[in-house]
Amino acid sequence: MNEASCPALLPKTRLRYNRQRDACVLLWPERGLVLNRSAGDILKLCGGQHTLSSIVNALAAQYPHTKRDLIREDVHRLIRDLHSRGLLTLE
Amino acid sequence: MLERPYTLTAELTYRCPLHCVYCSNPVSYDDRPALDTEQWCRLFAEAETIGVMQVNLTGGEPLLRCDLERLIGHAHRLGLYTNLITSGVPLSRRRLARLRASGLDAVQLSLQSTDQLLADRIAGLVVHKKKLAVARWTHALGIPMTVNIVLHRDNIEQIHDLIALAEALHAERLELANTQYLGWAFVNRHALLPTQEQLEQARRTTQAARERLRGRMEILFVTPDYYGGVPRACMDGWGRRHLVVSPDGLVLPCHLAHTLPGLTFERAGTRPLLDIWEQSEGFNRFRGEAWMTDTCRTCTHRTVDFGGCRCQAFHVTGHLEAVDPVCRWSPDHHLIQTARDAAEQRTEGAPLWRRDLQMVP
User: Fold this and answer.
1) Nearest residue to B128 via CA among B13, B20, B11, B15
2) Residues whose CB falls within 8 Å of the CB of residue B254, separated by 6 or more in sequence, listed in order
3) Which A residues 43-82 touch B at CB under 8 Å?
């Protein structure tokens, strides 16, 4: 995984907004995760067309009051976690 | 606070062309008319509004419903994740493509064995080759696939080949599910229960394969609770996360809850689903800890297993509140030990009982 990697959620996953929980949820066979707001915003960009660094840039623009280093750390941690769960690929 | 349900398991029919010797359908049930398309659609919509995110379409064999495309389409438009749990019989490639186009998200396909003769004997029908074809179509159509194999005495030693078969079929996920001894599996327990040595060997083989296949195929090994010493968290706890609706519309915390005597369950559509979830006598019967015996209530594992499986406790001991007898602290644990001893000592084949097709509506 490096700044040029393009994370892509696997076809078995579905990223959806759940109005009861007022949150994005990531669903896959028989399981799912309720995402906090920033995790939802990150995963919306994980369709394989954006590099890690451009995802960090987009989030930094969206959350101007959060330090870029913190955002970068968050993005990397989430992507690593979902990759290890077999939910996304890193092209 | 009471959580909202996460999964709806829709048992669309109890009918099935297969007669598996471990079928988890109830051994007997009232013959009431099944819910129709509109009733299922209303139920899906209501389930979505109270927080359900996943729908498991199962049975019996859900493919026997000719309105399956409509039901999947409806669930899909509601934003629900749709998972078809099927034997693959009867299915054509064309219909599978239609189900996918309707919004089907994933398929869970059952296989019985790597050996055609054994597979067909377990299923009570010549089905193995057809299932392999269904697995290939599923992959070709790009549908995520889980292969589910129920493990028992006669196929557990094939575990190495079973894993290789699932890999060759491009399953994303393999569930090696040791039989849960309920329904027909309880009737046939004497013939199905493996020995401890068989089980340990299977566990070792699975662990090695899991390392090898990491990142390619997820392997789930469901330990048989008869050899676990502690109960499993059946349904993640009674009335905590799962709703099951039987073909005739009973709203249940698990698919066999209506086989327990003296519990009252309600029918979908008779009052709001949320009221049934929160207030019905049946759902509240085994929530929390007040119903537990002292053995469970003072045990640290109670927050892990939530008191184990109520259906198993009742069908083995005859008492609804009994400690799940698979637990080593259960006063009835000798009943499980006796079944294990019989499995160790048995050397010959044993007769098997099957659901009689004519008895099924």
Assistant:
1) B20
2) B234, B235, B238, B242, B244, B310, B311
3) none
